[in-house]
Amino acid sequence: MKNSLSTLFFLSFIIHGFSQRTIITLTFRAIDSLTQNSLALDSVTVKNLAENCDTTLYEAVSVLTLDATWPVGIGEPASGSSGSFEVMQNNPNPFPGSTLVRIRMKHAGELNLSVYDNQGRKLSAFGNRFEKGWHLFGISTNSSRELFFKVSDNTATKTIRLLNAGSGNAGERIYWKGQEGSGSAILKSFPDATGFIFYLGNLLQYTAYVQGYHATILSDNPVSSETYTFAMLPVFTPTMPSVETSPVTDIMQTTAISGGNVTADGGATVIGRGVCWSTTSTPTMADNYTTDGGGTGSFVSNLTGLTANTPYYIRAYAINSVGTAYGNELTFSTLPAVFTCGSSITINHVTGAVAPVDKTVTYGTVTNIPGEPAKCWITSNLGADHQATSVDDATEASAGWYWQFNRRQGYKHTGTIRTPNSTWINSINENSDWTPDNDPCSIEFGSTWRIPTAAEWTSLDASGNWADWTGPWNSGLKLHAAGYLDYMLGSLYYRGSEGTYWSTGKLNSTSGIYLGFNSNFGYIGNDTKAGGFSIRCVRD
Q: Quick one: how far is CA 197 from the chain centroid?
């Protein structure tokens, strides 16, 4: 059963012959230890560690009022007890002629009560059968003296010491005042119905309870009114940590630096953190990852083992007992591999503004070609699956793709189908060379690669004495007769018998300069910019 908002206990005492009482109020409140917001208490248990008793309060702000005393101070026992009854010290003591004594019957039975002076003379007596519970007795005497109050049943005797500080006129007598709950005046200088008792200076322990918070304990020896505030710690349910991904820096061909910032641990210790990365979106720890310690705060991650010239996706991660959380996703691309002419280059062509189809091609490279010995060239046509097998190789796989002058879009032709099969541009009129931003070599291979200039083709033609297709084929470039797309409809002509390769130079607004050859001739010519010719890439 819940106690009322204020629970009142009365206790009395004697110090050096005088009765002293004090009323103290203990107030209990609670706050959240993190936010400092007020909380409503569910209950507070007050335990008297000195007297081994307790009581519980059930209000949002609980108040306990005590009418308390110091412990008995003249050397006599505060109470006496046997197996069948308990005698409490009288109140007041010393007393001016009359006083009150509380006796608890542990079960119904006979009691004999007597008062003696310090000479052992019996001054008054009283006997009767009493019911179980607390009983209040009055004692009166006519003169100041030291007295002894003796209580006995058939098996035990208990005595307490009394001091009469004045004279009375009620004679020498013991009388029954009544039983608790009978309506008679009853002093609360004894345990209440719950068994709680308190003397000033007793060590009390207070335990507060609020739903969703850890129980909190305070202790004190109160001798005056006090307010106790419990700083309650919430009972957390841990969640996933929070982490942010740091920008990627120091990007090289095979290494990079990133990291992250664990901004919150979710209420549980972060035991692992780092970054994970992949060539596909949403990387996890099933992919590549670093291990960079634990806890909250910023960290740095060193990525290794990357592939040159490759796009990557990266996210930071953090692990606690709940699970693994990931940060925001970032992307970066590694630098192209440090290139040495003579090595191969693998290009991932993706359908779009340049490549007509998806294709991954490994291109060979060669240098020291007569006429331009310091330049580096690819050894197959742009878009070809591989190098031609002969000068008159008429396969689509060896031919590669075709471009109109100063246009990004390449075209694949199977012999019957052109891809993309968009409307063909049959007339180009612009007073411009092939511009770098439209150069498919630069776009697909990187900015160091480009279409050859007219001067470079002229130098190779002259130095190699390319009188027919034998010179280009034997040059190391392995230029072959890949044919061309006609300017009117974009149809394929002369694959296997005619080679036409664009330069970046214009003759005028409608014609561009190209390298041409067949089985009978080799030449530097010009033709309409709307024609679709092959491209061979070069770099300085």
A: 50
In angstroms, the Cα distances linking 101 to 134, 136, 209, 233, 331 are 10, 6, 38, 47, 89
- Alpha-carbon gap, residue 289 to 276, rounded angstroms: 4
Q: What is the 3-state secondary structure (H, E, C) of 72-122?
A: CCCCCCCEEECCCEEEECCECCCECCEEEEEEEECCCEEEEEEEEECCCCE
Give the three-class secondary structure for 257: strand
**Residue of 285, 288, 294 whose CA lies nearest to 260:** 294
Give the residue from 249, 241, 239, 247 showing the smallest Cα distance to 315: 247
- Per residue, what are the HEC states of 381-423? CCCCCCCCCCCCCCCHHHHCCEECCCCCCEEEECCCCEECCCC
User: Contact 208/28 with Cβ under 8 angstroms?
Assistant: yes
Contact (CB, 8 A) for 160 and 76 = yes
pLDDT by residue (tens digit) across 359-387? 999 999 999 999 999 999 999 999 999 99
3-state secondary structure of 455: helix
Run of H or E including 471: helix 470-474
CA–CA separation, 30 and 43 (whole Å) = 11
Residue 45 has pLDDT above 80, yes or no: yes
How far is Cα 56 from Cα 18, in angstroms, rounded to an integer? 33
pLDDT tens-digit map of 47-65: 988 878 888 888 888 888 8
Cα–Cα dist 497/355, whole Å = 25
User: For the whole model, what pTM was predicted?
Assistant: 0.46
Beta bridge partners of 6: 63
- The pLDDT assigned to 167 comes to 66
What was the pLDDT predicted at 90?
A: 81
Both tokens of residue 428? 């180009």
Q: pLDDT tens, 484-506?
A: 999 999 999 999 999 999 999 99
With 0-12 / 13-18 / 19 or more C-beta atoms within 10 angstroms meaning exposed / middle / buried, residue 235 is exposed
Structure confidence by residue, pLDDT tens digits, 166-221: 766 667 888 888 876 433 322 233 334 345 777 777 899 999 999 989 999 999 98
Q: For residue 269, what are its two tokens?
A: 């210790």
Q: Is the preceding peptide bond at 420 cis, omega within 30 degrees of 0?
A: yes
